[in-house]
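Standup notes
- DV: blocked on the single-chain target, sequence here:
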Amino acid sequence: MGGEAAGGRVELRHLRAFEAVARLASFTHAATELSITQPALSRTIRQLEDALGVTLLDRSSRHVETTAAGRAFLDHAERVLAEFERGLAAVRRQSSIRLGFSWLLPDPWAQDTVARFERATGTTVMLVRTDDALGAVLQGKVDVAVVRGRVRSTEVRVVHLFEESRVAVCAVHSPLAQRAELDWSEVPRWPLVVNTTSGTTGPWSWAAGAGPETIVPTANFDEWIESVAADRGIGVIPDVAIRRNIHPGVRFIALRGAPDSPVALASLRRPRNAVLRRFIEAALASAADLRSV
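- DV (later): unblocked, structure below
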């Protein structure tokens, strides 16, 4: 809604500006609340008064006051703005944002982010489990996805959130099951089960020639965990798994000296989407809360 209120055209921005000045009795405070400059706010009010052909605000006194015409118009402006906000809320309650993930969501970050975003916007977050979260973003199946590890695609926008520690996983009857700790340098001595679609640890995690000699490839998390439980090899996974009962046939082993695994949000590089932007803001705020603990 651009342009001036000339010729009787009154826009929503004019109503918001007038309501803020009338309520706060101050151009300075209203400009701050509306995040515009005071000269811009004054021009907007003058446009509204010119369109209506009346003076709405008395600027002669020390404090800004509404005139008789202003008080009469304020009642109508408030009702229009309230109805408009109710309409926005009704639409937002029916809208949603699709968050993709390939396996366990980081906690408590995920729960905090969803609650923060839904409270602030009234928009629902739909959780979409997918074997290939990055692929789901590129195919438009989700709006944004939690991705772990290094993202090399140039087709997506990546927003880094935080780092996760790694832990080793083995079968309950593996010789390693009795170990309390495993060093990162020891991992290549064992067959390594790798989720080639969305895993965070694989041959790429070591310099050329320094990684495990034997790789057991799997295509998704379910295949990965079942292969580890069957003692086909060991796995390395973010330590969020320790706090979940992911499989009775595996044991976790503390991993010393392992590099952290990055966690990020990936979305398509496209024109700015206000709802998506607010979700990313909520995600970053929750990540900051975690770092401050």
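- Follow-up: The longest helix spans residues 68-94.
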